[in-house]
Amino acid sequence: EAGVTQFPSHSVIEKGQTVTLRCDPISGHDNLYWYRRVMGKEIKFLLHFVKESKQDESGMPNNRFLAERTGGTYSTLKVQPAELEDSGVYFCASSPTVYNEQFFGPGTRLTVL
Amino acid sequence: DQQVKQNSPSLSVQEGRISILNCDYTNSMFDYFLWYKKYPAEGPTFLISISSIKDKNEDGRFTVFLNKSAKHLSLHIVPSQPGDSAVYFCAASAGGSNYKLTFGKGTLLTVNP
Questions:
Q1: Euclidean distance between CA atoms A68 and A53, whole angstroms
Q2: Which residues from B are below 8 Å from A31, CB to CB?
């Protein structure tokens, strides 16, 4: 069974540009989570989808971040416009139900110059 | 305001000995605790979990202990192996319909042959 996949693995962009990160959860997992780890700090929750609905987006930093999960399968996280402080590793995780452990993808390392 | 704290950034032990990783939390609403292991350039991998109704959970060489009155949990690895060398994250959730995880900053475990 394929694990959680994320694309791209690395992205280097300039301040003010737009970047879109993609996450493909494990097939059949209704729950999809986005997390972010800024260098030297803890992994922080961004938002949670149940199928295509946003269950909790309390961790989204500001309105420059937009997450979607059309059709309840893969998800995208768009940052527009990117700022220097957005640099970090963005992790996606999925689980079949909220009562199961979350399976993490390898992350996308975003560098904003 | 860090709700999950791992006060030891690193720990070094000899192969075959016990590794003890510690974690403290402040939010009394947390009722489910997990340990994740992370290798460089990979996402966190679930290791073991414990519900607040238990004080111990064991899985092979890994045991997690929970002391609710002290808001403290620990992960014991016995015997430690060089392949256990990784960053270990403590995480907690408050249950309900949203199991978003709150992470500590991680402890880098090095097991020396």
A1: 9
A2: 99
